[in-house]
Design goal:
Length: about 300
């Protein structure tokens, strides 16, 4: 569905001049006898090579935004089984980094270097540069103008930017504003939850916990490339390690408790309250719960939110 929407958007943005006036590629197609048929005048201007380039542009745009999931464009690491395992559910990682930091190394090039500018991407048929890199360059320009007391020229700095540079700055600003808003919404003040106030968390309703969890989850995803959330990748070598670890702990606990019961012992039990589990509950209950499919659907937000280092 998402890829179809992007293809339609690209077709709407591809214009042709005909005897009827300007027409986009999407409207140039008509249904005739149950089949799509391209307008004859447009077909003369839209060659087979153009079709291939448009299809590649749509694929490249999608990959830049959402990640690379096809085999043809997969990275070299995935030629090995271990690489495919590590990249599972993380194929958005490299495109996401490039979308924000592509060309960051050029910030340290000599200011007169001809290689300092953005690179042209043949697939998207446009210049490409990281959103944050473009924003940083623009802020540096404004700083120079302010220090030189040329305040009247500040608006010209924006109008002199290329279209892709303006779009990059808007994206950077949107991410910054969105992340700041989420921090405010998820703060102790915003939800009446003060970590320093004893017993305050007990007054929060299930709805408040769920709202706080949703906000913190989106906040962690938005801040992945700029906050400590990035290091979760280093801590967990593969996305499915959590599942493997859960099964391993369950089997280990089962064998440990089984051997204990065989010699007249007891289950390994909690010595104090721990979240949903009370003192005296068998730890095997938690291990079994952690391997249940879809367990997150009925897990309390209050328990899940501990993933974000909240109490």
């Amino acid at each position: 569905m998402i890829q179809s929407q992007m293809a339609v958007a690209q077709m709407l943005n591809t214009k042709f001049t005909t005897s009827k006036g300007e027409v986009n590629l999407y409207d140039a197609y008509k249904i005739v006898d149950g089949r799509l048929e391209l307008d004859a005048e447009v077909a003369e201007q839209f060659s087979s090579e153009d079709r291939i380039l448009l299809a590649d542009k749509i694929a490249a745009s999608y990959q830049r935004i959402h990640g690379i999931y096809n085999t043809k464009d997969s990275n070299a690491l995935q030629q090995y089984a271990a690489g495919r395992w590590a990249m599972q559910f993380r194929k958005w990682l490299r495109p996401g980094m490039l979308r924000r930091f592509q060309g960051a190394e050029k910030l340290f090039y000599n200011k007169d270097s001809k290689f300092r500018g953005p690179e042209y991407n043949e697939r998207t048929q446009s210049f490409a540069e990281g959103n944050y890199v473009t924003a940083l360059k623009f802020m540096n320009r404004l700083k120079k103008e302010v220090f030189a007391m040329r305040f009247k020229t500040l608006p010209e700095q924006w109008t002199n930017l290329d279209k892709f540079e303006q779009e990059n700055i808007r994206r950077s600003l949107g991410e910054a504003v969105g992340y700041t808003l989420l921090v405010v919404l998820g703060s102790a003040f915003g939800f009446g939850y003060d970590d320093d106030e004893e017993g305050a968390a007990a007054d929060m309703t299930a709805l408040q916990w769920q709202m706080l969890y949703n906000v913190k989850r989106v906040q962690a995803e938005m801040g992945f490339f700029t906050t400590s959330s990035f290091f979760e990748i280093l801590r967990t070598p593969a996305a499915n390690m959590t599942t493997i670890e859960a099964y391993w702990k369950f089997i280990s606990q089962l064998m440990s408790d089984g051997s204990s019961l065989m010699v007249g012992g007891d289950f390994d039990r909690y010595k104090r309250d721990a979240g949903r589990y009370k003192k005296g509950d068998p730890k095997l209950m938690k291990r079994f719960y952690n391997i249940l499919p879809g367990k997150e659907w009925w897990t309390n937000a209050k328990d899940k939110i501990k993933f974000f280092d909240l109490k």
